[in-house]
Amino acid sequence: MEGNTGKCRWKCLTLWVVAAVLFCWGLIRFLLPDDMTLMAGRTTDYNLRLPVSVKTEESVEVLGISAKPTADNFHLSLGTEVSAEAHEAGNTEVTFYLFDKVPVKTVSANILPDTKLIPCGRTVGVQMDTDGLLVLGTGFVEDAEGNKTEPCKGILQTGDLIQSVDGKAMPNKEAFLEAVGSHDGTPVQVAFVRDGVEQKAEVTPVYSPADGAYKLGIWIRDSIQGIGTVTFFDETTDRFGALGHGIYDVDTGGLMSLKQGHITSSHLTEIVKGQKGEPGELNGIIEADEVLGDIEKNTEVGIYGTADTSAFTGESYPIALQDEIQEGKAQILSNIAGDTVEAYDVEIEQVHRFGKESSKGMVVHVTDSDLLAKTGGIVQGMSGSPILQNGKLIGAVTHVFVNDPTRGYGIFIENMLEAAETEESVPTGAGFSLFQGEPMLYFDYIGIRRNPIWRR
User: Fold this and answer.
1) Residue 65: which pLDDT band, with cuts at 50, 70 and 90?
2) Does position 344 have pLDDT exceeding 90, yes or no?
3) Which phi and psi angles does 7 have, rounded to 5°?
4) b/e per residue, 32-45, with b = 16+ CB within 10 A?
5) What letters, b where the CB count within 10 A reaches 16 and e where it falls short, cover 298-321?
């Protein structure tokens, strides 16, 4: 009897030990960064304060490196801190271990070139054409007998991107209106993209006496426009980055699929001051004919492209990685009147290193009395305003706290540079978007209407 009791105790103890190890493994995995960003020619220290080690294939107590071209130029050693010395730009991987035996997490290490950028702060117009006709929803069409039918129900859905009708490309909603409206009432073949997969379906248009044309009963959008702020310009590559967050469609909630886009000159006409519960906005006129640059990417952490070298001039600043950013005084550059970009005092209240939401790396508090008097704090249209600290470009403003417009979030400049270089978007969190379009308030991310939404 005592023997069975002893065995039971040992089993329970073993289970408790295994459960503790698994819990510790999972917790440490969650706390470790998803990636590491380094600067060529600099030594970066990571004070992780976690019971982990990092080993090479030879089991030496240093961080391991994958067999990539940059592996020989990347050295890491582990003491109480992880110290990383990067010699050349490139990418590699490092693996963290628990108890020197159990692999916990392998993360990518992105080594950026030693970069200097022009912090801009200039307000611009943003125009984007969607890569296909974006379906916003389906509805009813009333026929000659007064019957209401929904031709696209169960066939097309919100978020679909229509590419063609009966094999004919649909460059804009006017072409779609012509193709469907002049039809003879027989089924049409609609080619569309859903979740990245091309599909085709047949839909039978319904004649609407009220409109004098055949209809499919769907709402679509083909373009958007608004006002935002350019964060940086790289005079060595002619590339720019802006907003610090992606442009999302307000109706579908999805990241806008980009066909082509431009940044243009804009002229501010009005400032609506922010107040508790009602964030303010910058209103202005977009000069569509005064193109400053081409948008090539709409990612979750900003829009990126190339611009004319004469569009953005000024002094170049070195960039700071997140480990260099400190809580305390900083400045943002913003264009809230005319064409003048001015510096305004802010306080970095929190730095969320290795956070899971890229666009919320910092909490920024506006302290400048002049900016507070004019805007009430952070307003729509200021997203992308560069943040400077200790003579370096550290990031950009991205969101405003709805219940406190003097505070908002900022993104690390390293996250924007990574997104500018990769084809993949970087996950980020939700918040109040500062990309201002028509006078409508959106939460999470904003989609703006260049023209009225048309039902077709």
Assistant:
1) very low
2) yes
3) -65, -40
4) bbebbbbbbebebe
5) bbbbbbbbebeeebbeeebbebbb
Q: Is 425 a catalytic residue?
A: no
Instruction: Tell me which residue of 217, 193, 222 sits closest to 203, measured CA to CA.
Output: 217
Residue given tokens 């066909």 in the structure block:
259
φ, ψ dihedrals at 213, nearest 5°: -160, 165
CB 123 within 8 A of CB 381: yes
- Kindly state the average pLDDT of the residues 272-296: 88
For residue 383, indicate whether it is catalytic: yes
What is the average per-residue pLDDT within 320-328? 91
Strand partners, 206: 215
Q: Kindly report whether the global pTM for this prediction surpasses the value 0.90.
A: no
Catalytic entry in 164, 234, 245, 365: 245
Nearest to 422 by CA among 411, 414, 434: 414
Give yes or no for a contact between 393 and 354, defined as CB atoms under 8 angstroms apart: no
Q: Which residues lie closer than 8 Å to 320 by C-beta, 6 or more apart?
A: 389, 390, 392, 393, 394, 413
The predicted structure's pLDDT at residue 292: 94
- Report whether pLDDT(52) > 60: yes
Q: What is the DSSP string of 217-252?
A: -EEEEEEEEEEEEEEEEETTTTEEEESSS--B-TTT
Sequence-distant (≥ 6) Cβ neighbours of residue 373 within 8 angstroms: none
Catalytic-labelled residue, pool 164, 223, 383, 433: 383
What is the DSSP secondary-structure string of 112-168?
E---EEEE---EEEEEEEEEEEEEEEE--EE-TTS-EE-TTTTTS-TT-EEEEETTE
302 in Cβ contact with 231 (< 8 Å): yes
Concatenating the DSSP letter of every residue in 401-450 gives: ETTEEEEEEEEEHHHHHHHHH-SSPPP-----B--B-SS---SSS----S
Of 278, 197, 269, 241, nearest to 396 by C-alpha is 241
CA 215 remoteness from chain centre: 36
The catalytic residue among 53, 358, 368, 385 is 368
Residue 268 CA to residue 286 CA, distance in Å, equals 9
Nearest to 362 by CA among 398, 390, 334: 398
Say if strands 82-86 and 116-119 run parallel, antiparallel, or are unpaired: unpaired
b/e map 428-451, b = 16+ CB within 10 Å: bbebbbbbbbeeeebeebbbbbbe
Give the residue-averaged pLDDT of 96-102.
72
| Region of residue 302 (left: phi > 0; alpha: psi -120 to 50; beta: else) | left
**Residue 352 among the catalytic residues:** no
